[in-house]
Amino acid sequence: MRRPRGEVVLTSAGDLVVMRPKRFELPWWAVVLGLIGRWSWRLTWWCLRHPITTTLAVVAVWLYAEFGWAGVVVPLALAAMLAGVWRWRHAASWWAWCGGPLLGAFRQVFVYRRTWREAMTLCGLSRKYEHQIVLPKLLSVRCDEALDVLAIRMVRGQNPLDFQKATANLAYAFGRRHARVYSERPDDPPARDGRLAWALRLVDRVRYRDRPTVVYVVLVRTDALRKLVKPFPVAELPDFTKLPLAMREDLRTWHLHLLATHVLIGGATRRGKGSVLWSLVRALAGGISSGLVRLWVIDPKGGMEFAMGRPLFARFACKSFEAMADLLDEAVTVMRERQGRLAGHVRVHTPTTSDPLIVVVIDEMAALTAYLQDGELRKRIAGSLGLLLSQGAGVGVLVVAALQDPRKEVLPFRDLFPTRIALGLTEESQVDMVLGDGARDRGALADQMPRWAKGVGYVILDGTPEPMRVRFSYISDDDIRQLATTHPAPADAADILAQVRRETAPEPVRPPVQRRTSGPLLPDSLLNILDQDNRDNGGAS
Ligand SMILES: Nc1ncnc2c1ncn2[C@@H]1O[C@H](COP(=O)(O)OP(=O)(O)OP(=O)(O)O)[C@@H](O)[C@H]1O
Fold first, then answer.
1. How far apart are CA 342 and CA 239, in angstroms?
2. What is the edge-to-edge ordering of all strands in the sheet holding 263-266?
């Protein structure tokens, strides 16, 4: 029955319904034509956006029309064989150009799109606007051997922090344990060289352009860090800006930029702090034997951690706290001498054999700063450490320290360490204490490390605020013994502490090397002691 236009009608269920007047009615053929036009436009637009898929589909149809099934199956089999050989011969380029894009396209459609609405809604990332649900848009999925990288356009009114807060939920929503949220593309543009480099760089400028509305969610598909990481090869000439220490989640190597920085390693007991320190020693070994680096090591646990590598160290204190305080004082003396010599000439010290990089390695720093009962000695140590941490980096006197408890009472100068590494920790709050405020919210779940994750930790990469999960190489006792035999510190790195009889450990046999030719490394008083000792030993150096 036709009702008068605009009439208010009472339905049988007792609801009032307003019948709005129809302004005009389209004939049915116009509706059908409209729908056909709309879908044709959508198809054309899709083909334009996916030229490779479209071309492949057209070629497949043509081959089928010309040669039947054989025309499709034979090229497919050939392509699969070619891809297999490619993968076998050069896995990296295969993942970049073939496996990664194909897997990404597959997972975008069949894994992420399928559950997108549900996942976004239940993770609290959908919004309501004008009575409609608005969802973040999945733009693309890139895969590599271990990770899925999702580029997502945020809803207006959202920022990357909203996603970072939901990091763990997002990981579990897509059936993964680990996820990380980046506000910028997590990978850097590749270095380009060759004749076409300029063109590729132009393409990279577009691909890697800043996109403030897009957030990147990295989901760990295959946890590469479950496997033990083998020690990295020892470089005879270490690059202090790029020391290989650990494996990253994306199977690449994580490098430590050691030059002009101090490093703090926080981790609960038995979490692998030793492997971080030994990975660093191994990465520096080439420089140790050639005289570019000197390790001054303090091991308050009586030498349990470091005594095995004794020949690698220029100085070593493990028993007497006075000797440890002396060592730090001497480091301050070297720092002061360098400041006087370099001021006005350079701003950052460059290590040479005559003026080597001095790395003061301290295992369990709390033993010196908090647990030491002698108050006077504790103050002396705190004074030297404060000076080294605030002024030593630029003149090549660096501190690398490990500790279990990162509270301010235990380590008052925590903030003076520019580079931090968090291994497994016991409390949520400790994560931010080690890595800096907000690190846990950005995905550094160091307090949730499973028991197997020894030597696994979070680091902050240069230039990005988001933490990265890595596993440090495992250096066995045999590796340490071998390293100590192949890369001992040279003879002119004599142990002053052993000479003054504070420490009872005997000075190891050192291989002879040429004495430096220029630039005093130490004040004259200390150099005299060294020279005196060498003469006493019958010129062993
Ligand atoms: N990178 C690693 N990969 C695999 N296992 C590791 C790794 N690092 C350490 N481990 C294992 O974890 C255990 C503890 O390691 P380690 O002694 O280095 O920890 P720690 O944090 O220095 O302990 P502590 O607090 O007692 O000094 C050892 O049994 C070691 O074999």
1. 22
2. 253-256, 243-248, 467-472, 456-460, 419-422, 263-266, 397-403, 357-362, 293-298, 315-317
The pair of three-digit structure tokens given for residue 41, joined into one six-digit string: 């436009």
What is the strand order of the sheet 214-220 is part of?
Answer: 137-143, 147-153, 214-220, 179-182
Annotated binding site: 267-274
Report the separation in Å between the CA atom of 451 and the middle of ligand 1, taken as the mean of its atom positions.
Answer: 11
Instruction: Tell me phi and psi for residue 374, to 5 degrees.
Output: -70, 105
- The residue-averaged pLDDT of 424-443 equals 88
pTM as predicted: 0.76
Write the residue with the smallest CA distance to atom 9 of ligand 1.
272
**Ligand 1 centroid, distance to 271 Cα (angstroms):** 5
Nearest to 276 by CA among 227, 319, 243: 243
Confidence class for position 541, pLDDT limits 50, 70, 90: very low
Instruction: Assign domain 231-536 to its CATH superfamily.
Output: P-loop containing nucleotide triphosphate hydrolases (3.40.50.300)
Residue with tokens 């007497």: 320
- Measured distance CA(412)–CA(433) in Å, rounded: 11
Domain made up of 100-190+204-222: CATH architecture? 2-Layer Sandwich (3.30)
Question: Ligand 1: which residues within 6 Å by Cβ?
Answer: 228, 267, 269-275, 404, 454-455, 471-472, 474
Of all atoms in ligand 1, which is nearest to the CA of residue 267?
21
Q: 517 pLDDT exceeds 50?
A: no
Q: Where are the domains of the chain?
A: 36-74, 100-190+204-222, 231-536
Write out pLDDT tens, residues 179-238. 889 988 888 788 888 888 888 889 888 888 889 999 999 999 988 898 999 999 999 889
Q: Residue 398: beta bridge partners?
A: 359
* Distance in Å, CA 369 to ligand 1 centroid: 23
